Amino acid sequence: MQRVFSGAQPTGNLHLGNYLGAIRNWVALQNDFECIYCVVDLHAITVWQEPGELRANIRELAASMIASGIDPEKHILFNQSQVSAHAELAWIFNCVARIGWLNRMTQFKEKAGKHRENASLGLYAYPSLMAADILAYKATHVPVGEDQKQHLELTRDIATKFNNDFSAEDFFPLPEPLILGPATRVMSLRDGSKKMSKSDSSDMARINMTDDADTLAKKIRKAKTDAEPLPSEADGLEGRPEARNLVTIYAALMDKPVADVLAEHGGTQFSGFKQALTDVVVDKLAPITEEMARLKNDPSYIDAVLAKGAERADAIAQPILREVKEVVGFLNR
Ligand code: TYM
User: 20 to 30 A Cα–Cα from 193, which one of 32, 33, 118, 299?
Assistant: First the structure.
């Protein structure tokens, strides 16, 4: 059976990169797979979260998924901390994964910064919890943006080692990453060499899912570009990361190949193209933003969706966890 699992962290500032790199693909996959989507709050607390903000961000992320088109009736939408199998399986995987593997994780190095000894132990073990998220459901496919590729390779390493260590061939499937669409790595609006990120200190660097039309127009108008007009062919974007980023965002939102966008807009100045881009971004995001605002006024609905989702997720994960415990040699109750 083909089962999709993916997640996003409720750390606020959900942005266009999250939407184009992940959530939009999650919506499309609902037609062909059984899908499980998760608000990964256990991952969020690997760096400090103010409790009141965390609570609001969990609801906001769930709302953005529903507003984007995730169907919590047909598929499963839930909150990681409400299903204990994630934390339990993560511990077992902490004992399977090797320190050397985790030492190679570039995201840990970036997030921990210079003072690595001060990072939480949870931040270091983060990929092992991510493997538990996926394998607690024996998921076969994981749609993510480019930046999660290394974590998924580690998940496959953990699954392989578990299967070998316990002579349980094929116990865990090796999940396939699905890195889909043209916008697998949306870049900052201020610096084409940095990815668009929730934690960028400049709000002007990202397009937030909650930005209103005026804010979107201002951010796109001020986005960094170079002085040349748009090229007519894709190889004209070489060495022009900011130009490439804006064209890619436009192509992704319009569901058109980059080549078609350039054939249409090649030779125009960025001022004109930015106006066209603003129109598309506003057009595509406004219905989602409006629905998010409506759902914000109904936290009890969101809480009920998450509670129901957790029950259904638990019903899949618990029997798998029982099997894992059996394989490891624990006594089940
Ligand atoms: P997170 O919360 O950082 O991001 C959520 C999703 O958005 C993608 N993404 C981007 N895609 C394109 N361009 C960007 N600039 C950009 N920024 C973020 C991410 O690749 C991700 O797909 N570790 C994960 C959450 C997680 C998870 C999982 C994912 C926890 N457990 C299990 C899959 C399966 C994360 O921090 O995503």
Answer: 118
